Amino acid sequence: MKGGGGDKQGRIRAPLLQLESQLFRRVSVVVGCFLFVLVFLFSSRHDVAVLDTLSPKASLRTPAAETLLHSSAGLEVGDTTIAADTNGVVREAEPEEAEHHESNAAPSTTNSGNRATPGAAEETVQDNAVHVTAAATAAQPAMETTSSQRELPGNTGIITPRADSVDQRRRPPLCDLSGARADVCDFAGYIRLDANASTFVVVVDEDLPAGRANGTTTTAYKVKPYPRKGDVTAMGRVTEITVRATSNAEAEAAPRCTVTHDAPAVVFSIGGYAGNIFHDFTDVIVPLFGAARRYHDDVQLVVTDANPRWLARYGALLQGLSRHAPLDLAKAAAAGEVHCFARAMVTLRAYRELLIEAPEPASYNELVMPEFTRFLRRALSLPRDAPTRPGNATIKPRLLIISRRGTRRLLNADAVARAAESVGFDAVVRELDVSDDITQVGQLINSFDAMVGVHGAGLTNMVFLPGGATVVQIVPWGGLRWIARLDFGDPAEAMGFRYVQYEVAVEESTLKDKYPRDHEVFTNPTALHKKGFGFMRRTFLNGQDIVVDVERFRPVLLQVLDNLRQTGK
Ligand SMILES: *[C@@H]1O[C@H](CO)[C@@H](O)[C@H](O)[C@H]1NC(C)=O
Ligand SMILES: *[C@@H]1O[C@H](CO)[C@@H](O)[C@H](O)[C@H]1NC(C)=O
Ligand SMILES: *[C@@H]1O[C@H](CO)[C@@H](O)[C@H](O)[C@H]1NC(C)=O
């Protein structure tokens, strides 16, 4: 609980500080610790005003549409126990297959757990505490790790043992290990990245006697720059980076810079589950946007575990984020390079799937996530910012029905398409191939006004839709409502899309052919989640296909049309 609480506080404050860093920096040159308090108060209030005025997307949300469909689906609400077990995730090798796995769940679902069900959340938070306990003593509240504070004159202060609270205020730790999903190091100074050793050495004090910086007073952190902390499988594919402070005296021995950068470094791994579009976005692209946007495009991306195909596929987006070519750490290591910076951030902050910030304040995501979609459209030259308003018979809104292979297939996608045509859509059934060029995928998706898909990674493609488009998620049988919301529903709304969640009835699931009707799979699916994630995945996620009852689905199609009449142009 302790780690979680401090983290939560930090999450709220960090973005506010970033927005205000300009002002903050100027003021802080003049004032001492006393005025910090005043600056905080001022910057927070100011931000509230900014968020209010820049947050028009609230009007695009349609809670009524979802509840309508929820209530007719006959599902129980008690599906929250999966909070501790699951999360939307896919494997690199078989992106159309298993889209979930166990180990990453706890870190990434904590926040939602807090909101959805206090009971489940408590369990999750405790679970997190296990991960962070060892590190917790080194991590101060995140408010002390923000950029502006680092650039204070205090930056040249003394490396201190943790017990020294006065000095600790002046120098926050290089790394914050309290995050549920990622350990984040964010530091300034004379920074040398010894590529061969995957080590950042930060000279934090010029005057400190060398002996003081040695031994107990110097902190070295080992972090993996990928936001799936606690997920053994993902993190096993991520290179560890060492970050350590050193005194000037010791720094004499450190390797010399071969390249010096003016731009700050942002270091991230594309190991983990790279190659699956959901993971590419939720673990890398979205958090990277969150980290890099404040530098406009003057930031040096440093990539570890680089896969050339991945870099090629997402090259247009990386170029949109930085005018400098990404630095491949492995290549730099082979060349024996030492890169020097004045500022660096190792690992990306991540909180929930496909969102940049913690759920509170929600208004932050509602401000930044639409900006994220605008960034994508700009970077990929996607032409449409708004959907087409359904007009007369010659102007039909375009509906994409995403089909999946392997698991959770929509077996009657063609019938759904015909139903959509009958109410006035131009409907297309399409399978999206993960190897497609991202610009081509973006162009294709952007030509649609709405998207329908069964829960799965393919829904991630919604990010390319025109703003105000509608996303329909078909949720398979089995108490999966909650995870559907977490993975795609909440992000869709934050991005400024309309969202409709269609939860299938027993008759629409092929599970009905596998189990007798009085089986617990139907009478109490949520209880079965307690049997563990493996069981749940086999039974509910990978064990069924969907045959949508077209008549039951028709109101959804009409709802989408109605949305487009409101948001279309
Ligand atoms: C500090 O540590 C470095 C490297 O371990 C060593 O070379 C140096 O002599 C030490 N300095 C003192 C004063 O102990
Ligand atoms: C990288 O480090 C290893 C082990 O420390 C060393 O043997 C090798 O020569 C180094 N390579 C370069 C290019 O500096
Ligand atoms: C349909 O709308 C288009 C564009 O607004 C217009 O050019 C066309 O004449 C309209 N057709 C009918 C039948 O109203």
TrEMBL record:
<dbReference type="GO" id="GO:0000139">
    <property type="term" value="C:Golgi membrane"/>
</dbReference>
<keyword id="KW-1133">Transmembrane helix</keyword>
<protein>
    <recommendedName>
        <fullName>Glycosyltransferase 61 catalytic domain-containing protein</fullName>
    </recommendedName>
</protein>
<dbReference type="InterPro" id="IPR049625">
    <property type="entry name" value="Glyco_transf_61_cat"/>
</dbReference>
<keyword id="KW-0812">Transmembrane</keyword>
<comment type="pathway">
    <text>Glycan metabolism.</text>
</comment>
<feature type="domain" description="Glycosyltransferase 61 catalytic">
    <location>
        <begin position="360"/>
        <end position="472"/>
    </location>
</feature>
<feature type="region of interest" description="Disordered">
    <location>
        <begin position="92"/>
        <end position="125"/>
    </location>
</feature>
<keyword id="KW-0328">Glycosyltransferase</keyword>
<keyword id="KW-0325">Glycoprotein</keyword>
<keyword id="KW-0472">Membrane</keyword>
<dbReference type="InterPro" id="IPR007657">
    <property type="entry name" value="Glycosyltransferase_61"/>
</dbReference>
<feature type="transmembrane region" description="Helical">
    <location>
        <begin position="23"/>
        <end position="42"/>
    </location>
</feature>
<keyword id="KW-0808">Transferase</keyword>
<dbReference type="Pfam" id="PF04577">
    <property type="entry name" value="Glyco_transf_61"/>
</dbReference>
<feature type="region of interest" description="Disordered">
    <location>
        <begin position="138"/>
        <end position="171"/>
    </location>
</feature>
<dbReference type="GO" id="GO:0016763">
    <property type="term" value="F:pentosyltransferase activity"/>
</dbReference>
